[in-house]
Design goal:
Elements (H helix, E strand, L loop, with lengths): L10 H22 L8 H14 L3 E2 L17 E5 L2 E3 L14 E10 L2 E10 L5 H20 L6 H13 L4 E2 L5 E3 L6 E5 L16 E4 L2 E3 L5 E3 L6 E3 L5 E3 L2 E4 L6 E2 L4 H6 L4
Antiparallel strand pairs: 1-4, 2-4, 3-12, 4-5, 6-10, 7-8, 7-9, 9-14, 10-13, 11-12, 14-15
Helix pairs in contact: 1-2, 3-4
Bound molecules: 2-amino-4-trifluoromethylsulfanyl-butyric acid and cobalt (II) ion (CO).
Cobalt (II) ion (CO) binds next to loops.
């Protein structure tokens, strides 16, 4: 990894990450209206890329080589449908279908700083169980964020996410974690979705992190998908993924990838 240090930044630098985050969250709000049966995942990717470039920023995943892979990622979005948890590749031959759940994950780079965000959308009407999975995963993210304050530990975040997900008999995906984010997409420390209170790393003021619970309806086991990038549930059960970029503060974490534009545009959730 290029950056060994933690992403602890000045207010000026955090303002740049906030500006990148603002573009990213508005992109999600815009893209939300296109999440309908019949659109291809490659079309969604084009729409996202155009939006980001029009705002004067760059799609951060495109050409990025994650520390856990040996080739670089070719698209703007990760689009992960149903049993795909993360890193699904957009494709011009994949059409969204009514009843699916589709996780959109995207990163934006602005003036050398990054923001990272994910949201799982319903495609039209979905089953009550799938809806429950979305709500539990989203709430797990907010439980995690509520723990991300100065002096707390990464274990506090993971513990709150894990316990909440467990109480619904869902599973947190094995191995996949959140991370520091700033001058690089993935920076230390890891932010696991499981942990013990008071364990792990202590969170300092102005640390910028991506918190991202990935939740499976069945077992926590994962496998690689046929496209070579997607990580899927091993048992084929549905998975959901929600992510925000936040900055650790004294009172409570500040969410940089504001959620409001999405809520406004999502009439069916
Ligand atoms: N948001 C994703 C994550 O934190 C980043 C995907 S990088 C990609 O794992 F290159 F795989 F797109
Ligand atoms: Co991330």
């Amino acid at each position: 990894m290029k950056y060994e240090g933690w992403p602890i930044y000045s207010e000026e630098q955090i303002k740049i990450i906030a500006a990148a985050s603002d573009i990213l969250s508005r992109m999600f709000g815009y893209l939300a209206s296109y999440i309908v049966p019949g659109i291809t995942t490659a079309e969604l990717d084009d729409i996202a890329e155009e939006f980001i470039r029009r705002e004067g920023a760059e799609p951060a995943f495109k050409g990025y080589q994650p520390p856990f892979e040996d080739t670089s990622y070719p698209y703007t979005l990760c689009v992960s449908i149903n049993e795909e948890i993360v890193h699904g590749l957009p494709s011009s031959s994949r059409y969204l279908q009514e009843g699916q759940i589709v996780s959109i994950d995207c990163g934006v780079r602005l003036k050398g700083f990054h923001a990272d965000m994910a949201y799982t959308f319903p495609v039209g009407n979905i089953s009550p169980q799938a809806y429950k999975l979305l709500k539990v995963t989203e709430e797990a993210l907010y439980r995690g964020i509520s723990q991300a304050k100065v002096g707390a530990y990464t274990g506090d975040i993971g513990h709150s996410i894990f316990e909440y997900v467990k109480s619904y008999n869902f599973a947190v995906s094995e191995q996949l974690t959140g991370h520091g984010v700033g001058e690089a997409m993935h920076m230390p420390p890891d932010i696991p979705n499981v942990g013990k209170p008071g364990k792990g790393f202590r969170l300092p003021d102005n640390l910028v992190i991506a918190i991202e619970p990935m939740v499976q309806m069945g077992s926590r086991r994962v496998r690689r998908g046929p496209d070579g990038w997607a990580v899927c549930t091993r048992d084929g059960s549905l998975a959901a993924h929600f992510e925000h970029t936040v900055v650790v503060r004294r009172g409570q974490a500040q969410i940089l990838t504001s959620f409001e534009p999405i809520k406004k545009s999502l009439v069916h959730v």
